[in-house]
Amino acid sequence: MQAQASSTALNATRAVALATELEVARSLSARTRGLLGRRALPPGYGMLIDPCPSVHTWFMSIPIDVIFLDRENRVVGLRRNMKPFRMAGAWRGARTLELPVGTIAATGTSVGDSVVFG
Fold this sequence. Notes:
Elements: E1 4-5, E2 9-11, E3 16-19, E4 21-25, H1 28-33, E5 45-49, E6 54-56, E7 64-69, E8 75-82, E9 87-89, E10 95-99, H2 103-107, E11 115-117
Parallel strand pairs: 4-5
Antiparallel strand pairs: 1-4, 2-3, 2-11, 5-10, 6-9, 7-8, 7-10
């Protein structure tokens, strides 16, 4: 099953868009595949993996920014510039937002911020 298209992810605390083109991966196959095979992520792109308290970048060819969210979509962990062949997770993480490198810094996203999806 393909990842489902959604519209946006917004850091509501800072009133800034995290992703203007958001894919949602909920099925086992879509979550397992994630961003594998992508050679680049365009600005404004993101993938929400739900449920997903931890991620790995094994066999990926690009680094990514990762935001870990709890069940209420509050940021509980951040990983900037996560290179290929790494693992990361967050205690209390329920879902994961994967974004192009530099998105966390550009948006000022911090632990405790609230994210909304539209």
